[in-house]
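User: For my dataset I need records formatted as: sequence, then C-alpha coordinates, nothing else. Please produce one.
Assistant:
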Amino acid sequence: MTRELTITNALGLNASNAPRLVQVANSFKCSIWLETEDRKANAKSLLGVISLGAKKDMTISIIAEGSDAEEAIAKLSELIDKGFDK
Protein backbone atom coordinates (compact mmCIF):
# COMPACT_ATOMS: atom_id res chain seq x y z
CA MET A 1 0.00 0.00 0.00
CA THR A 2 1.39 3.40 -1.00
CA ARG A 3 0.31 7.01 -0.64
CA GLU A 4 1.98 10.14 -1.99
CA LEU A 5 1.94 13.32 0.11
CA THR A 6 3.38 16.79 -0.04
CA ILE A 7 5.30 18.12 2.94
CA THR A 8 3.43 21.23 4.10
CA ASN A 9 5.44 22.09 7.21
CA ALA A 10 7.58 25.19 6.67
CA LEU A 11 10.65 23.44 8.10
CA GLY A 12 10.13 20.24 6.16
CA LEU A 13 10.77 16.88 7.78
CA ASN A 14 13.54 17.97 10.13
CA ALA A 15 15.00 17.01 13.50
CA SER A 16 12.22 18.75 15.43
CA ASN A 17 9.27 16.93 13.85
CA ALA A 18 10.85 13.68 12.61
CA PRO A 19 10.75 12.13 16.11
CA ARG A 20 6.95 12.48 16.15
CA LEU A 21 6.68 10.71 12.80
CA VAL A 22 9.01 7.92 13.96
CA GLN A 23 7.03 7.54 17.20
CA VAL A 24 3.77 7.13 15.27
CA ALA A 25 5.40 4.72 12.80
CA ASN A 26 6.74 2.60 15.65
CA SER A 27 3.25 2.19 17.09
CA PHE A 28 2.40 -0.11 14.15
CA LYS A 29 3.52 -3.68 13.44
CA CYS A 30 3.78 -3.28 9.67
CA SER A 31 6.89 -2.30 7.74
CA ILE A 32 6.80 1.38 6.80
CA TRP A 33 9.10 3.19 4.38
CA LEU A 34 9.31 6.81 3.26
CA GLU A 35 10.57 7.54 -0.22
CA THR A 36 11.60 10.71 -2.04
CA GLU A 37 12.71 10.98 -5.66
CA ASP A 38 16.16 9.60 -4.87
CA ARG A 39 16.10 8.17 -1.33
CA LYS A 40 14.24 5.57 0.70
CA ALA A 41 14.27 5.24 4.49
CA ASN A 42 12.69 3.13 7.19
CA ALA A 43 10.01 5.31 8.81
CA LYS A 44 10.81 3.69 12.16
CA SER A 45 14.39 5.00 12.08
CA LEU A 46 14.98 8.58 13.22
CA LEU A 47 18.30 8.83 11.42
CA GLY A 48 16.76 7.38 8.27
CA VAL A 49 13.84 9.83 8.28
CA ILE A 50 16.09 12.83 8.85
CA SER A 51 18.49 11.64 6.14
CA LEU A 52 15.73 11.96 3.53
CA GLY A 53 16.16 15.72 3.68
CA ALA A 54 12.48 16.25 2.83
CA LYS A 55 11.80 19.98 2.50
CA LYS A 56 8.59 22.00 2.30
CA ASP A 57 6.56 21.31 -0.87
CA MET A 58 8.51 18.12 -1.56
CA THR A 59 6.49 15.01 -2.45
CA ILE A 60 7.15 11.85 -0.49
CA SER A 61 5.64 8.38 -0.64
CA ILE A 62 4.62 6.35 2.38
CA ILE A 63 4.88 2.63 1.67
CA ALA A 64 3.51 0.15 4.19
CA GLU A 65 3.19 -3.64 4.18
CA GLY A 66 1.52 -5.73 6.85
CA SER A 67 -1.69 -6.29 8.76
CA ASP A 68 -2.09 -2.69 9.94
CA ALA A 69 -0.66 -0.95 6.87
CA GLU A 70 -3.85 0.90 5.98
CA GLU A 71 -4.20 2.37 9.48
CA ALA A 72 -0.49 3.28 9.59
CA ILE A 73 -0.66 5.16 6.30
CA ALA A 74 -3.80 6.98 7.45
CA LYS A 75 -2.21 8.13 10.73
CA LEU A 76 1.09 9.18 9.14
CA SER A 77 -0.73 10.97 6.33
CA GLU A 78 -2.82 12.90 8.85
CA LEU A 79 0.32 13.92 10.76
CA ILE A 80 2.07 15.13 7.60
CA ASP A 81 -1.02 16.84 6.15
CA LYS A 82 -1.48 18.82 9.36
CA GLY A 83 2.13 20.00 9.20
CA PHE A 84 2.98 18.08 12.40
CA ASP A 85 0.69 20.34 14.46
CA LYS A 86 -0.45 18.76 17.68
